[in-house]
Amino acid sequence: MSAALDVYLYGMTVLSTVHRVALDTPTLDGYGEILESHVCPGGEAMNGALVLSSLGLKTALGGPHWGTETARSLGQYAARAGIDVTKITVADDHPGVRDLVLVCGAQRCVLGWFGSYFSQNPRRWDEPDAQAIARARVVAIDPFFGDSSLGAADLCRNAGKPYVTIDCEAVSELHRHAAATVVSREYRKRQFPGATDEQLLGEYTARGAGLTIFTSGSDPLYYARAGRAPRSVLPPKVSVTSTLGAGDVFRAGIVYGLVRAQSDSECVEFATALAALCCTRFPIANHAPSLAEVEGFRKR
C-alpha cells in the first residue's frame, strides 16, 4: 500500500546561491557589502515543500531533473525535511537548474539560466506523477512547464483532487479549474499594464471555479469567488529581513488551509501570517517555521 501523502507539488526546484547585501549597495560600476551568503534550495515548489513539511504535512515533489551540481544539496535538504523525491530524475549530463539571488531588504534580484533551460531539447523536467496526484489530498501546480503543467491539472480533475496554482492568465485552463489561484502584483504589472486590480479580479473570478487571491507584498491583498464581493486582508507588519520566497510561502499557506479544510478567510489569514513570519527569516530553506511558531506569531 502506498504511503499517505498530503501534498504533491509539481513545479520549480532550484539550487540557489543567495547573497544578502547591505542596504546601501550601489548600482552598476560601484561596490557593495555582502552580509551573508548561502547555497540552498529555492524555487516555488521546493520552498513550498520545505515549509509544508515543517508544518507537519507529508509532501512529494515533481518537476525539473536534478543534475550533477544540484542533486546532492537538494537531496540532503529533502531528506532532512522528509520530502519524497523518489520520482525526480537525477541526470549526470547537465548541471541542473541554478540561480544567483541578491537580497536587499524587501527587494531581491534573481539571475538565472531560465531562458536556456526552458528552450532545451530534450526537456529537462519530468511529467507529473499520476500516482502521487491520486494519493495526495491537495496538489500545487506551477504554470511554467506548458502542456506538462496542464497535464497535471487534468490528472487532478480526473482524480477529483483540488489544486492551487499561481501567476497564470484568467483565460488559462490552469486557472479555470483551480481550487485557488494566487496572482502576484509583480505578475499583474508585467502581464496587464494599465489594468486596475478591480477589473482584473472581476475577470479572474468570472472565469475561475475557485478562489482568486491578488497579493501585493506588504499592501492589502484581495480575494474573491465568482458572485461574491471581494474581501481584503492587511499583512502583519514585521521587520523584514528578506522577502525572497514570500510568494512561495503564501501559496504553501493556501495549500495548508485546503488540506485542513479551512474557510476562505481562515485560509488566507493563515497564509498571510505564514508569509509575514518567513519575511523575518533568511533563508527560508534553513528556517522554515513549525506550526507552533506560526500560531504563536498569529497570537502576538
Please give a quick description of this structure.
By secondary structure, the protein is of the alpha/beta class. The protein is built from eleven helices and twelve strands. Helix 1 packs across helix 9 and helix 9 packs antiparallel against helix 10.
Map the helices and strands.
Layout: E1 7-10, E2 14-21, E3 34-42, H1 44-54, E4 59-62, H2 71-81, E5 98-104, E6 107-112, H3 114-118, H4 130-135, E7 138-141, H5 147-159, E8 163-166, H6 173-176, E9 180-184, H7 185-191, H8 197-207, E10 211-215, E11 221-224, E12 231-233, H9 246-259, H10 264-278, H11 291-298
Account of the 3D structure:
With 300 residues, the chain is α/β, with parallel strands linked by helices. The chain has a domain at 7-11 and 44-68 and 127-298: UDP-N-acetylmuramoyl-L-alanine:D-glutamate ligase. The chain contains eleven helices and twelve strands. The chain has helices at 44-54, 71-81, 114-118, 130-135, 147-159, 173-176, 185-191, 197-207, 246-259, 264-278, 291-298; strands at residues 7-10, 14-21, 34-42, 59-62, 98-104, 107-112, 138-141, 163-166, 180-184, 211-215, 221-224, 231-233. Strands 4-1-7-8-9-10-11-12 form an eight-stranded mixed sheet, sandwiched between helices. Strands 3-2-5-6 form a four-stranded mixed sheet. α1 (44-54) packs across α9 (246-259) and α9 (246-259) runs antiparallel to α10 (264-278).
